[in-house]
Design goal:
The structure is a homodimer of 261-residue chains. With 261 residues, chain A is of the alpha+beta class. Chain A contains 6 helices and 10 strands, in the order βαβαβαββββαββαβα. Chain A folds into 3 domains: 159 residues, 60s Ribosomal Protein L30, Chain: A (2-Layer Sandwich); 56 residues, CofE-like fold (Alpha-Beta Complex); 28 residues. In chain A, helix 1 packs across helix 4. The longest helix of chain A is centred in the last third of the chain and has 25 residues. The termini of chain A are far apart. At the A-B interface, strand 1, strand 9, helix 5 and helix 6 of A face strand 1, strand 9, helix 5 and helix 6 of B. Chains A, B: This is Coenzyme F420-0:L-glutamate ligase.
Amino acid sequence: MAVKFSIEGVEGLPEIAGGADLAALIAAATDIEDGDILVITSKIVSKAEGRIVQAADREQAITDETVRVVASREFDGGVTRIVENRQGVIGAAAGVDASNAPDGTVLLLPIDPDASARALATGIRALTGARVGIILSDTLGRPWREGQTDLAIGAAGVHVFEDLRGSTDASGKPLSVTMPCVADEIAGAAELVKGKSSGVPVAVVRGLGHLVGDLDLPGARSIQRPAERDLFRLGADEAYNEGYRDGFDESQAEAAVAASE
Amino acid sequence: MAVKFSIEGVEGLPEIAGGADLAALIAAATDIEDGDILVITSKIVSKAEGRIVQAADREQAITDETVRVVASREFDGGVTRIVENRQGVIGAAAGVDASNAPDGTVLLLPIDPDASARALATGIRALTGARVGIILSDTLGRPWREGQTDLAIGAAGVHVFEDLRGSTDASGKPLSVTMPCVADEIAGAAELVKGKSSGVPVAVVRGLGHLVGDLDLPGARSIQRPAERDLFRLGADEAYNEGYRDGFDESQAEAAVAASE
């Protein structure tokens, strides 16, 4: 367990264009040490990977990126869709976003953020000789609580959970269900230096080297809870309406049987 | 926007007993500077405030702390209740927890975590002369994602949101809906040095002084989204069952009207 760590924003990165060699650009922009964890805003990975479409195609892009609609809400002039996207992440608009995208365009999330993270970790480890971990972050809202936090949508070379199951608390009692999602905590911490508008898309986390590991550790996909095990797999209104239809139909069916007897 | 900050665990605090002067103990345990944010595990505040009951009374304590049941799930030999507690926080078992509690007891959350945070901020500011912010943290699970993160359940003297609404991104477009919950991000970051079992219940965050402010800033209660505005105010099964009953009853009522005509 670290007693101290620091987080520093990486300044001076150029605007990222399609095909950019992000690993080389990041390695050149800052000193990187063994055990560092680099938190990279997924937007610049999307740009480097050319995951960009015309703004006019935004609604279609959201539909294309959507695996499953979880909830939706109408507001003045539109509908917000909370969906599970192809990456397994549940969030608004499938991560399709105009902010920090070139004018007239929207950015999609990387196709496979864990694979992108692994490529970056491999590249930066090779270029610097430093054993680093990589987390790709995105800004996401959440149920029950206002505002957004940055969370890990891709990871490589870093433990996404600190598995305390089986260990004990300070008084010796087992911590049976505790499994902190350190990747999400690190992604959120990095937002505090990266911000949304400051042009600082990368942060270096130093002092948490005990969380850095092999490149074949489970990625951020392992954070996603399968829908069938999720108590909140569907919005309350959507679930209510589904139940209402089923209950109504069941009553009608029973009445039809009774009438035919 | 900070370019760098650090988080350090405060070691050497004594075991906290009922009536302990936490502000004095924390001020004595570490150097505190202007602009520091202290993240304090709510458990030690509960202990100082005597929020402790016999383990045999755990189920009753959960019921007493519960304002509203959001969802529940049966598992081998028990039921997990996800509830909104008196503090407005939605989580498992209303925050009633045996870990790090004295043997045979369970800890309840502080009655009013924002008030506790305000008292600590007032006390530590008076003792040290340093303008500090205080965040009380608790470990909470969440929908959609496995594992837990530490979140802010109490706050004083610190902005809980960094309100970017109305500001612009790096390319000049308005960030219309972005409002990072910095208090939650800071609480999660502090977990990375505090851990669950290391006996380090306080962390000092240095370098985010721009988020420190007056003692009358909105507390962590302002993070809670009112249920009526929450798409996930009720578990999917609970909402489905409620809809099913209503749909069934409506069909029966319609049939009764038809039969009487």
